[in-house]
């Protein structure tokens, strides 16, 4: 399913979520308005490293970030492997891969349309809604 959010488009594999497309859309709209900080959706997490990385991403609090290296250290793998697993995340936003940043806080790839620009907008939304600073360096380019 394609979802328009914050002037961008994100594709979510609805077969990876137990709830209906209507419920997914409703919760994403609540998130976009700043009314939802956590999704109440049953995500089907795959086995293996991708599933482990997805579980670690779901544990990152709203409005905060972690580095690929942070997750790699927690999971006993490499930052590159974590980045590859993030890229395989079938449910961006619901499993917040936008909260994973480079070791220097720089924004790196994001699978949604407009890539890093969408990632930046999501992090800025969370910072505004949580009343805190953006937890990463946001490049202007």
Structure description:
This protein has 141 residues and is mainly alpha-helical. It has one domain: Winged helix-like DNA-binding domain superfamily/Winged helix DNA-binding domain (Arc Repressor Mutant, subunit A, Orthogonal Bundle). 40% of the residues lie in helices and 9% in strands. The protein contains five helices and four strands, in the order ββααβααβα. It has a two-stranded antiparallel sheet. A two-stranded parallel ribbon has the order 3-4. Strand 1 and strand 2 form a beta hairpin. Helix 2 crosses helix 4 and helix 3 crosses helix 4. The longest helix has 16 residues. The relative contact order is 0.18.
Helices and strands in order, then pairings?
Blueprint: E1 2-5, E2 8-11, H1 21-33, H2 49-58, E3 66-67, H3 68-75, H4 79-87, E4 100-101, H5 115-130
Parallel strand pairs: 3-4
Antiparallel strand pairs: 1-2
Helix pairs in contact: 2-4, 3-4
Family: Belongs to the MGMT family.
Keywords: DNA damage, DNA repair, Methyltransferase, Transferase
EC number: 2.1.1.63
Q: List low-pLDDT spans.
A: 137-141
- The total count of helices amounts to 5
- Radius of gyration, whole Å: 14 Å
- The dominant shape is globular
**Secondary-structure content class:** mainly alpha
Q: Which oligomerization state do the chains in this entry correspond to?
A: single chain
Q: What is the makeup of the main sheet?
A: 2 strands, antiparallel
CATH class annotation: Mainly Alpha
In CATH, the architecture is Orthogonal Bundle
CATH domain topology: Arc Repressor Mutant, subunit A
| Topology as a string of helices (H) and strands (E) | EEHHEHHEH
Counted beta strands: 4
Q: Which range does the strand content fall in? A: 5-15%
Q: Would you identify the CATH H-level superfamily?
A: Winged helix-like DNA-binding domain superfamily/Winged helix DNA-binding domain
- Helix fraction by DSSP (H/I, runs of at least 4): 25-40%
Q: Order of strands across the biggest sheet?
A: 1-2
Q: Taking all residues together, what is the mean pLDDT?
A: 89
* Tally of separate domains: 1
End-to-end separation: 29 Å
